[in-house]
Amino acid sequence: MRTYLAGLVFLFIIPGSFAQSVKNNTHYSVQKTITCGKGAVVSAHPLASMAGLQILKQGGNAVDAAIATQLALAVVYPAAGNIGGGGFMVAHLSNGQNISIDYREKAPAKASRDMYLDKDGNAQLDLSQYGHLASGVPGTVAGLFASLKYAKLPFVKLIQPAIDLAEHGFPITAGQAASFNSNKKEFLEQNKAAIAFVKAEKWKAGDLLIQTDLANTLKRIRDLGQKGFYEGETARLIVEEMQRGNGIISPDDLKSYEAKERTPLSFDYKGHQVISMPLPSSGGIIIEQMLKMIEPRNIAAMKFQTAGSVQLMTEVERRAYADRAEFLGDADFVNVPVKTLVSREYLEQRMKDYEPGKAGNSKITGAGMIRESEETTHLSVIDAEGNAVAVTTTLNDSYGSHTVVTGAGFILNNEMDDFSVKPGVPNMYGALGNDKNAIAPGKRMLSSMTPTIVLKNNKPCLVVGTPGGTTIPTSVFQTLVNIIEFNMTAIDAVNKPKFHHQWSPDRIDVEKDFPADVIQQLEAMGYTVKPRESIGRTELIQVLGKKIIAVGDKRGDDDARGY
Ligand code: DON
């Protein structure tokens, strides 16, 4: 067990006395990895992983733990954990069933295709990215209740750690203090009333964050269920907040929101069954495309992060992301040729112009031809019965729209920016889109979130996912290739430098610790390579025989717990 200190004086919270420890404001440490035998939880914050672990130990299954962890993240990780956003859950149950639950935000009924264009037709991205008009109808709470069907423990038990953490407060990490300080301006711009994340002096590591309004909202959800959010007091507060800032979410939008159970996407990769999220996520389709494009090409022989293997992965990323921009959108609203997009014949055709040693070009290699009628967070959980759950949930950007619902204490998402506001205008992740992902009332905006489970012999062997906007599918893809093809350990597969190509812009983005000699070789092939901030925060669980290895990404306060 390796322990990483996040810059505070820490004591461990004794498992089992979680709520008491929170009440006593006990400090905690960030634990990056654990090897154990029964169950594990990995998430973006130690207190959330601990909440999930406590639920496993109390007899809950992986779905119970995933619900409790998400609720705790809504309190201890306000940058992305949420009840004002949306997400996806992918699960493999010990009875063999694979499920996925879609609780992506929806465009409000008053939304319209050109709502972010000014009178001259120019895109106003400040409106799709900041403030009240940027929010889609939140889906998270409906998603939690839809997941409850597969859980064992009563909801009151699952939400209690979150209520304790909000009511009594918890000491923030150094990273969170820096993040609150650097977002102060946006918070003040978007909120007239006082909010928990802003105070006169600078935040520092160890300061207590108490969220009384949020605790009361969580109590309404505990007492009234889904209606405690989508109707009554909380709904009234959301609608009042909308009126304060020209937002358009109505009582009807909230009341009619439904999470949807969907058939998960499932495919074979060299004897592994990969289970991932279907539309409205692009993630599952993209990783299926990318894995199938490398499958016939013996990437293992090329070795990890050589110019050759990076080039191959870059070229499959280019092609998959070009298809994303052209063909993908909410399949409840538009026709998407999914079968063709993931067929081996089509993908081989797509790779016809791949030339080893020579950079491709996005002007030449666009989407295929088909003719036919920062901020998000991921958690991975596994339990002793063999249930595995992968959940990615999001407010979109860090702290979403930066708008806190006055009196209700939670942040609203800015997910509307994931729609294509105008063809040819990139969203905040540089993603392009067209009609397929245009705004329409009630439609879900296209996502990149890729919660994924890999089975071998019908048993979970990997549970994985990450935040990172459009880099999400490539991070999941690279983590899978690192393990399945390059035989890497789970820790290395998560922490080794990642790279990303998304067709447009035509450029390979690399993390700062990406090897310099490989960059030079790629540039010699004709690629533009650009160093950037970290890519993703991957949370991985690997099962090797009876051993569970859980790894939280080195790139944040991410934390792995198990027993
Ligand atoms: O659904 C999506 O694809 C985006 N809203 C995800 C945003 C994200 O990952 C930001 N995190 N860094």
Describe the protein.
The protein is of the alpha+beta class. It has a domain at about 1-260 and about 375-435. The protein has helices at about 20-25, 45-55, 60-75, 125-130, 140-145, 155-170, 175-180, 185-190, 210-225, 225-230, 230-245, 250-255, 285-295, 300, 305-325, 340, 345-350, 470-485, 490-495, 515-525, and strands at about 1-5, 30-35, 40-45, 85-90, 100-105, 170, 210, 260, 265-270, 270-275, 375-380, 390-395, 450-455, 460-465, 500, 510, 530, 540-545, 545-550, 560. An eight-stranded antiparallel sheet has the order 1-2-19-18-14-13-10-9. A seven-stranded antiparallel sheet has the order 8-5-4-12-11-3-20. Helix 2 packs antiparallel against helix 3, helix 6 (about 155-170) runs antiparallel to helix 9 (about 210-225) and helix 13 packs across helix 18. The longest helix is centred in the middle third of the chain and has 21 residues, at about 305-325. The protein is globular, with a radius of gyration of 22 Å. About 55% of the residues are buried. The model is unreliable at about 1-15 (pLDDT under 50). The structure holds 6-diazenyl-5-OXO-L-norleucine (DON). 6-diazenyl-5-OXO-L-norleucine binds near residues 375, 394, 418, 468 and 469.
